[in-house]
Amino acid sequence: LLAPTEMSSPSLKTGAYILIGVGALTMLMGFLGCLGAVNEIRCLLGLYFTCLIIILLAQVAAGLVIYFQKEMLKEELSHIVKGLITNYDPLNEDERNLHDAWDYVQAQITCCGWTGAKDWEDNEILFNKSMTQYPCSCSNRSKDLEEGRGFCNLGGLVNGTATYHDWPVHEQGCMDGVEKWLKDNLGVILGVCTGVAVIELLGMILSISLCKNIHSEDYTKVPKS
């Protein structure tokens, strides 16, 4: 079994740290931009402009990395999710938030497992139960979805054993479901990214304009000899 500490990857950790850094930089940038605009401080406006350039370049770089390294990222994500499925335990309160998040994904995308319901055969609890239980969030029954998490009893078995083929669950794996969702919402995603980039460009233009205005005002205030 995979230990919880193994359910991560260097690439995803690096991405998380980058997002945290960008978030902190954005908060600092906004504060400096407001302070520079209100008090007409050119150096702060220049710093604001520089931060916007850095963030814009970081976003472009992140997009290129995701595009050119998508197969590697998909493989790492597959490893993480399968480890999560293998170690899924509804009674483990330490990992409850992580498990609830995965239950939410399966219920919302109407999928089961990463590549399919077969992934759940590696779960030790279900294996020890002779596969007579199945993930409630995978179910295509409305009464099971009301439970929303944990395992549901199959029932109606003759010999007391089953396989994932006997489960009333969705056939589609979440990998295919996520890819389908991204394709269906590609226009919205690109629109949001474009909107953010336009706002950043406008901020850069405004900061340059303010700097020029401040410079012009300072020049006119200088006494002529």
Q: How would you characterize the overall build of this protein?
A:
This protein is an all-alpha fold and 225 residues long. It has two domains: 13-74; 88-190, Cd81 Antigen, Extracellular Domain, Chain: A, CATH 1.10.1450. It has eight helices and two strands. The chain has helices at residues 10-39, 42-68, 70-86, 96-109, 124-128, 142-147, 174-184, 186-221; strands at residues 133-135, 151-153. A two-stranded antiparallel sheet has the order 1-2. The relative contact order is 0.12. Mean pLDDT is 80; it is low at 1-8. One of its GO terms (cellular component) is plasma membrane. It is found in: Membrane. Belongs to the tetraspanin (TM4SF) family. This is Tetraspanin. Keywords: Membrane, Transmembrane, Transmembrane helix.
Contiguous low-pLDDT stretches (5 residues minimum) are 1-8
Strand content: under 5%
From the alpha carbons, calculate the radius of gyration and give it in angstroms.
Answer: 26 Å
- For this structure, the CATH topology of the largest domain is Cd81 Antigen, Extracellular Domain, Chain: A
Structural class: mainly alpha
CATH architecture classification name of the largest domain: Orthogonal Bundle
The strand line-up of the biggest sheet is 1-2
Total count of strands: 2
Compute the separation of the termini in Å: 82 Å
What is the CATH first-level class name of the largest domain? Answer: Mainly Alpha
Topology:
Layout: H1 10-39, H2 42-68, H3 70-86, H4 96-109, H5 124-128, E1 133-135, H6 142-147, E2 151-153, H7 174-184, H8 186-221
Antiparallel strand pairs: 1-2
